[in-house]
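Reminder: ligand-aware prediction takes two inputs, not one.
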Amino acid sequence: MYQTSRPRGDSPVSIIGAGIAGAWHALLFAEAGRAVTLHERSDAAMTESTSHWAGGMLAPWCEAESAEPAISRLGIRSLDLWRRHFPKTPFNGSLVVAHPRDRADFERFARMTSGHRRLDAQGIGELEPSLEGRFRDGLFYPGEGHVEPRRVLPQLHAAIERAGGAIRFGSEAEAGDLDGLVIDCRGLSARDRERGLRGVKGEMIIIETPEVELARPVRLIHPRWPLYVIPRGDGRFMLGATSIEAEDTGVSVRSALELLGAAYVVHPAFGEARIVEFGAGLRPAFPDNLPKIRIEPERITVNGLYRHGFLLAPALAELTLAYLARGEIDNEVMQCA
Ligand SMILES: Cc1cc2nc3c(=O)[nH]c(=O)nc-3n(C[C@H](O)[C@H](O)[C@H](O)COP(=O)(O)OP(=O)(O)OC[C@H]3O[C@@H](n4cnc5c(N)ncnc54)[C@H](O)[C@@H]3O)c2cc1C
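Here is what comes back for the chain with flavin-adenine dinucleotide:
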């Protein structure tokens, strides 16, 4: 960290985009006593945001399998912020299991990650009774958590208003028309200014069955994608997620087969489940798949949260605030113009 010259710390703050990045920025800035207005072009249902489609896993140790160390560092910090601001967030850990044919990939996953304990068949059954007898080996990451994006976004928006911030839904904002400091959290829509920003398609399916109960996300080792089943309560489960270099939001038959097949491997009772929803979101990503906080005199842009928006947004908002309050720069994610 080092110090640099920066915008004044007392001007009003206009944040564009009420997805997970913009919402956490608005919350921390409002709590710090700044005059915050959060602009969102869609309505409170947030169906135009990538955040609407996310799994909401807070999994810094599992993600270390494929992500840079900065993701785990910031992710672990974010867990504290989720805990402090939303004490009811479930921190029941994550479970990783594998089909016997993917044993080598399972061992690789164990080697590439930390913060886990190995479980045998009995340990898996004790942790998740619905999975008793289904897998011989598992990895349990006790420190991880998960949120339900479609519940937690409205909770964040309510917390912003309680902290004194204003939210304007249906407000398609232009940075040049806004007062004070602008924080641009427009996700993929910021491609007009952010060179190299691209969308990475993630497909998901929601299913419903009373036959299976899970207390935590279960990841199934898969040669192409990290596939997972996340309990949503009331017998609903989200199956996610593909990762495809494409910018349409259709769900292909092949992806649906893979997602539903993974659920069936986790538990055959998912074969009888009712399909509630298919959908896809586009993850905003820079070429290195790392998030960036880009600082200009009147505007700070926070983008490229890729697969880790829920995991990283609290820590990124804290970094932006620390920069404005004390001039601190995090060299791994911040760039000054
Ligand atoms: C299938 C899937 C699963 C995922 N699972 C996880 C997971 O388990 N854990 C995790 O951490 N991450 C996950 N992600 C990634 C996460 O969803 C993204 O990183 C995150 O949603 C990006 O958030 P954002 O706030 O940058 O963008 P967005 O959520 O897209 O928000 C940007 C907002 O800006 C608004 N906007 C744009 N232009 C304007 C304008 N001019 N004026 C006003 N508003 C504007 C848009 O309407 C939008 O609401 C997943 C993503 C997908 C697709």
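Residues 41 and 264 are 39 Å apart (CA to CA). The chain has two domains: 13-62+148-192+288-336, 94-142+198-285. We will return to this case in the review session.
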